[in-house]
Structure prediction request, 606 residues.
Amino acid sequence: MFDVFILMNWIGLFAFAAVGALKGKDAGLDLFGIVVLGVLTALGGGIIRDTLVGEIPAALTSMTDVSIVLCGVFIAVVLSRSVEGALIDHPALLTADAIGLAAFAATGALVGIAAELTVFGVVVLATLTGVGGGSLCDLLLTRVPVVLREDFYATPAVIGGGLCWVAVVAGFTPTSAAIGSALFVFGLRMLAVRYDWRLPTF
Amino acid sequence: MFDVFILMNWIGLFAFAAVGALKGKDAGLDLFGIVVLGVLTALGGGIIRDTLVGEIPAALTSMTDVSIVLCGVFIAVVLSRSVEGALIDHPALLTADAIGLAAFAATGALVGIAAELTVFGVVVLATLTGVGGGSLCDLLLTRVPVVLREDFYATPAVIGGGLCWVAVVAGFTPTSAAIGSALFVFGLRMLAVRYDWRLPTF
Amino acid sequence: MFDVFILMNWIGLFAFAAVGALKGKDAGLDLFGIVVLGVLTALGGGIIRDTLVGEIPAALTSMTDVSIVLCGVFIAVVLSRSVEGALIDHPALLTADAIGLAAFAATGALVGIAAELTVFGVVVLATLTGVGGGSLCDLLLTRVPVVLREDFYATPAVIGGGLCWVAVVAGFTPTSAAIGSALFVFGLRMLAVRYDWRLPTF
Prediction:
């Protein structure tokens, strides 16, 4: 069952890398910029997370993640030149992206729980892991991160992080808490895409 | 006497959170964006500071600070809907913000002194703790941080950080050095607000 | 021979500080903003690098680097008021900047190798040390970092980082690997300036 969780993380790395690379391409960046945006979108949230809890980022000490990310960047750039229409809004990519959001948020929550943070700290790590990379990518393109403005994208990660913390406090194993909250985040995000949910402004 | 210093930090957390939330609201962000900007303005400088000296950020391991911050965000949003005129320029908020700048700068200097940094390192931590959160907030809104452009806001923190270092080197206890430099920063900032001081450009 | 490498780092600190300060001055920042941009351009990449591998940034614990940086800021501002024409494009500054890029990339690679990162991690640290400070400076001015868009500036650092890793794996001492890759980065960057190289866009 834990294998499913690892697979979700890999799908997420691939999808996030593709999204970042496509954003870079659409903004007219050069080859280096496109690769940086893909890498940062996929790995940036996890790197900030690991740094916050005082660990050397896992992305810099293992070749697995970065290999998947570079594949995602490469395939996205190649496909975007041959496929008609906006690849970045393709249902397959939106679904893979939601899988990534779910897996990343749950992974972030697990790291926060292992570091004995408060529920606030756990939610911050879950959210940062899920949306931090994409927000960094937006910042490098000098755009207000879309998650702050009008989407229902960070909210599932926030709720999922809290849920994972509650489940562990209630006695579930971290693994089952992570899988449960990941499934919840994925379902909530897919509903938000389907029905075009927005958070209120004031 | 140290209780006064803790109280100044709490007032600062409240005021910084309110300022960040109001900036987010004025920029048309959604609920998540408003909360993120409030939290980041109040806690972002301290989180960067703790990370730089290799500690897990205190804001992620204690519920005290974040509770005050969420109160500040909530009250600012509620008040901004019922009060006429721009809340963000209200004298009470400007004063509370100056108290926060003073307490944060002194706290940052203490952390730098405890980590045995150079005077430059101490000044950097004092300044980052005082103005780092607000600058992150500006960056997320894709604005050049106002402290870099035209205000007399970071300068009191810079001088206060140096003063705190000098006082500790001269034999004062860290606590009295922090309180003394915090009072100095507060006074200097209030004078700058009162007389509309600016730093020169070239 | 290692003295040459230290000298290259010093020239780089001076040049990067000057470039950052001139960018700040051209953007109309005040005195504090100009100093921050100079300091951040010169020291920002190294500070991020040290934080990622879990060390307190060297720039905060030694006065050597920051002294050179403040000299660079001061001299750049003074010269820019008396010299005609754009100082920032002056061949002497471009050359000193290329020396800095080379020394910083090699230093970053050495730090990554010492922390036992993967080749990807080593390349990331080399690149961040070389172009991270300048990119932070661009971000604070709300500009898409120029290295992501159209320059041949980060590429030498990327290749140099990989080269340094290969050389160490092949049995060269870290010192000779660093000097060799620094010379390579410098040569490649000067060629790029001379012939106006660009990376492809898509």
